[in-house]
Design brief:
The relative contact order is 0.13. It is elongated, with a radius of gyration of 19 Å. The longest helix is centred in the last third of the chain and has 21 residues. It is mostly helical. The chain has seven helices and no strands. It has one domain.
């Protein structure tokens, strides 16, 4: 039993040196949504507190992210979040993809499945009020209209025609 505990302890110590690359950039991406589209101050605050840690190229890491295997789990979660919706690369999306991502953002706020409960459990400040959710929905809806109007060739019917 003693040998097993020592082996487990050695493994835990050894894995502390195997770290994922941090999701931190020195400056805002040129493709960031805020670089190309108007984002109201209230929506910026909501995006910063509830979305950007997992859905951008700039994560604010808590102290426990320095402990393995927690860092691996967080890295996996962040990479998955960026794959689904990346605020830092939003302007690089095609108009159709950007429209679809905004549609999903609206759904995530309407149905209350974002931010994830596992995130807000630890980051209670990331919980959005109904007013903040509605502001985000209104902004995303307006941005969808703007994208659809500026690329009529890509959309059969715009939100206003539906």
């Amino acid at each position: 039993m003693k040998k097993v505990l020592i082996a487990i302890l050695l493994i835990l110590v050894a894995i502390q040196f195997i770290r994922p690359t941090p999701n931190v950039s020195a400056e805002m991406s040129l493709n960031d949504v805020e670089e190309h589209y108007y984002v109201p101050e209230g929506v910026k605050i909501s995006l910063d507190k509830a979305c950007r840690d997992c859905h951008s190229s700039n994560t604010r890491y808590p102290w426990y992210s320095q402990i393995q295997p927690v860092a691996w789990w967080l890295n996996s979660h962040i990479e998955d979040g960026k794959k689904h919706f990346n605020l830092s690369e939003f302007a690089a999306y095609s108009p159709k993809k950007a429209d679809h991502k905004l549609e999903e953002l609206i759904e995530s706020q309407t149905d209350h499945w974002m931010p994830l409960e596992s995130y807000t459990f630890i980051h209670s400040e990331a919980k959005l009020t109904e007013t903040e959710r509605q502001e985000m929905i209104d902004w995303a809806t307006a941005l969808r209209r703007e994208i659809q109007k500026s690329h009529p060739e890509e959309f059969g019917k715009t939100l206003e025609q539906q």
